[in-house]
Design brief:
431 residues; alpha+beta; OB fold (Dihydrolipoamide Acetyltransferase, E2P); six-stranded antiparallel sheet
Length: 431
Amino acid sequence: MLLTEEHVIGLAPDDASRKAGSALASPGKWVSKGANTDALWGECQGSGSKPYQTQVDIINVAFKCSCPSRKFPCKHGIGLMLLYARQKDTFTDNTPPAWVSDWLSKRAEKKVEKSDKPVDENAQAKRLQARQQKVADGITELMLWMKDIVRNGLLQIPEKGDAYWENMARRMVDAQASGLAGMVRALGETNFYSEGWQLSFLDQLLRIYLVVQGYTQSADLDEPLQQELRSLIGFTQNQEALKQQTGIKDSWLVLSKQTTEEENLTTERYWLYGQHSRQSALVLQFYVRNQTRPEVLITPGIALQGELVYFPSPIPLRAIIKYPVSNISLPEVTGLEGWTQVTATETALFEQMPVRSERPYIVQQLTPVQHNLQWWLKDREERLMPLKAGYPNIWKLLALSGGKPLNMAILGKEQQYEPLGAWHNGSYKLL
């Protein structure tokens, strides 16, 4: 794992942990500390009689500490990593104590046990059949609901309360169609105060209709398209089976991280771009609040040297990381030359999959400009593309650009894009 101060700060779960961890990044706070090629460890004196035992698996990026905190990493883990990033030469002990060796051994054993666990195929098939019936029942109800919307017209739609959308979304959750639930919620999140809201509303309604119709007639479709539609509905795929497939080895630039929380579930979305393959990727990680973080922690602003396997799709985007991976400094890459190439790529994607998600691109020499009270991104050929409505980091982008063009990582589709980061003086800056 590449440990710099910036990357360690990026691993902190919140600002409070970041601040408290920084205060512990001092040799005087640690009774003992050490490091080798597999782990970091240290004992930090707290308020009790015994110091807290902190350990970091630097191969698979995992944390453990004897303190009562349920954050991952806790302030002690952050402090230990920051101290290592700043004063690596002070970690002279390279023989891990028993409490570190035992932890690493148990982690390795759990991986073996998980891979050796037998699968009851009959029970699995019964569960799948029951779920498919639930989804079918939910789709029947959803189609009636959408037909009512079309039959009654759009005039009264803005007056619908939040419960109107949330009730149907929860019905889709009950039907085990979480993907459809998210699409229904997106309908309710339409900005009904903006001019032309009807177009975006109908676009989302049509998206739901296409997904539902495609899924119900999926037997006539190619396998990759079937899998994509199942994923859009909310079905998951066996990631362990995917890891057995051959992926794409590359230096994967981690362009951005987006975190959302729904009740107790946290979803992390990482946007990646292959330096040599020039392919985009989306890596999703999920964890329950205050529970163990995902097995691999990904830091925005660095590059992962490793192998990605894509989920089946006509236009592959979502992927999983095959282990192990190593982190390297993020290089500057050559992206698309301007908006003409972006729109050509988007057109080709639309022909293969009309219902698709936004994806990242790297575009050369973009400049933020304002025209008619709206912000745009101008390429080297003076072509303009509007910034996504409500883009929150415009002033940070302007300060970074200073009116000059930058190579940018952007996210979006069709006619709406938002910058994720940009290269400035040879280094990648997150926005």
